[in-house]
Write a structure and sequence with these properties.
heterodimer; A: 292 residues; mainly beta; 13-stranded antiparallel β-sheet; B: eight-stranded antiparallel beta barrel; 2 helices
Chain lengths: 292, 202
Amino acid sequence: MKIWQLAVICIISVLVVLSPAQERKIRWKKKIFKGPQAVEIFHSTILVNLPTTEVLQKKNLEFIVAHRFIPSLGEGIDALFGADGPAYMQLSLSYAPVTNLMVALERSNRENHYQLWLKYKFWEKGSGEIPMAAALKAGAGVAAEDPALSGRSRFQARNWQYFAMVPVNLKLMPNLMAGVVPGILYNSYIYSASPQTSITLGATVEYFVTSSMGIYAEVNSVVRGYRSEGATAFAVGFETETGGHFFKIFLTNSTRINSAQYLSGVDRRTEAFSDLHLGFTITRLLRFGEKW
Amino acid sequence: MAPKIINRSRWLFGVWILLGLAANSLAVEWQVDLTKPRVAKFISRAPLEEFEGITEDIDGYLYWEDDSLFKNNEFYFEVNLNTLDTGIGLRNRHMRERYLETDKWPVASYQGKIVDVAKRDSAGLTVYEVQTQGTFSVHGVERDIEVAGTVEMLEAGLMRIKAAFQIELPDYNIKIPQVMFFKLNKVIKIRVMFHLKRVDGE
């Protein structure tokens, strides 16, 4: 290599090193954020009896107290339209161990019924004109009545019921939500001669008057298989929400609360407004485990 | 004749390689390591209610041009506000839809330079206390701020960043919620922690 060539290389090197304004070649590329991770349609995890696609946030715990007053509205003001009781009630405790999955343990005093279920939101679509989501709720329940009353042991096979529902929810408008809930229940009536199956189809709708107050209706009908005296359960009501905690009050023709009991229909046909029952549900969210 | 052309080509190629090497050896780029823990907290302490919004959606880079650490540096970091989680769904929705308006401005970002560096050793780690100046942007409003932080050199090609600062919501045209169950302090403390990995030469 000639001396002048070496000199050129040295000069170029020095200029490069000393140059204060090199063109920056930053490799980092801006990501396209996809928007909210969770598609929120109905605000609560249940409407009245039918599930929504909403699941608790990871590590959240939810406690629910629900009542269905047994006396109907026809009892009049002297019984506060049934609110004097007695009532079927449900206590529910649910928890979300991981994202999009929650598990719940519930007990209703109707037939001393316990049930355990899982709900998994397996699909959601937040983009487009109509956000939508789908979930699977599946579980098992047992009517663990006192053997002295039922005449059989608490946990024998015929006392167990199994159910699954697939809520599909849509956000039709910013304030209007709707959903369909096909379901199946095995061993619908625990005292039947042989296990029966019920195929059901439910529908839900809620209009949010404000972001924290809504009016809603739901209907669930046994479309095939075993059905109780009345095949179609329905409810209409009002809810208010404060920071994720709900208070719901409604009128319904069904006093059944646990899904394994509710899905097979209602106790008697509804022929008049006075046949309806008052009910309410209170939910309370709790943070569990590590704060963040 | 042919050997001369070959020699000249080799010489030009050598100059080109030297230029490339010189430029590359001076540029150092670090990017947020999306496989390592990272967290951004937005902390509100109000008289009736205290809460934190948290997300791990942090991304960005730190870049400098010289072997001497942080010389002629610049950085850009951003946080996805759509994934900010306060632990309560309704509060998340309110924060996103009513106050941060994340459909219009989905990220909060901080872009600037490290303007002062002090080295210290801490439990065997080399730690740099850094002072930065830059532009913080949220809710469509940009403001110049200064942020102090630490840079911990964990291993070759990996560092951890920690920083804390606070903003006042009215400065960014964010109205303060007045609903009973959702009170915000006008001062929001922001804490971030994330890892950067060196990516130059990949």
